[in-house]
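User: My notes are a mess, but here's the protein and zinc ion's SMILES. Can you give me a structure?
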Amino acid sequence: MPELPEAETIARSLSPHLVGRRIEAAAYPGQRVLRGKPAPDISGRQFVSIERFGKQLLLRLDGDTLILVKLGMTGALLLDAAPDAYTRAGFTLDSGSRLLFRDTRQFGSLNFLAGEPTGLGPDPFELSAAAFAQRLRAKQTRLKVTLLNQQFLRGLGNIYVDEALHRAGLHPLARASRLTAGRAEALHTAIVELLTHAIAERGSSISDYVDGSGARGNFQNFHRVYGREGQPCLHCGEPIVRLVVAQRGTHYCPACQTR
Ligand SMILES: [Zn+2]
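Assistant: No problem, the inputs look usable. Here's the predicted complex:
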């Protein structure tokens, strides 16, 4: 499932092809993915920007219409791909290009909004280390659960939470509120550095993820714990352990990551 670095990579791959372009026609062969039905008529509208919003994509059109795209497990926004049975929406542009939303399992969605999206916590890059530490102090939940919570912080999912906690030397079951200010701020630094590196490597391609041009990411080659159960920790050599926290597979090094 795409997380912040993958959403940012998709936004960057699509922006040069979409921004300033007008939509000539929109079609929705997969009504199930539409939220806020019926979809508004957006023909003639122009793309103003393509942004990430947490793990989601925000397509900003003129006339104050926003399309919030949740990719879910298998959703993809693809430019000039051939339509198939899994194409749920298609936008024909005045450039002659076509943007498709393809989603095999249909856990994704297109949500037409009349105003800014609400309900999610801050983006990790918008938050200072001190503000992050303060938010963390108010949470009684375990670190893994806290960081997966999109109302706490938007954009991190299973992969990047595990990777950030290893880089910060923190145990996934540690209580958020018990962290010292110093360790909490170091965790914020680890998150920002991790996401910056992952964006530079164009995200992690574990299963289905590709960017808007169909290209895979490369950050899976830099994972230190995610998917490495039983393999030696790259820092200390101890085998990486997998446990289940809040029904999510969680990977960590028992020697490097402490409470
Ligand atoms: Zn280790």
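The chain is about 25% helix and 25% strand.
User: Great, I'll file this with my notes.
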